[in-house]
Amino acid sequence: MDEEYGLVVKPDSIIAERVALRVVRALERHGITPRVDEYSRRSYRSLSRLPGFNVKRDLIPKIIVVGGDGTLLRTLMELPDPSKTVIMTVRAGKKGFLLDVESYEVEDRVEDFVNGRYKLVEYSRLHAKATAEREGCVLNDIALVMDRAKLVRLSVYHRGERIMGIDGDGLIISTTVGSTAYSLSAGGPIIDPSLEVIVLTPLNPVQLYLRPIILPPDSRLEVEVRQDSNPLYMVLDGQKTYRLEPGDIVTVDSCPRKARIARFKWWENYYERLYSRIFSYL
Question: 183, 201 in Cβ contact below 8 A?
Answer without folding.
Answer: yes
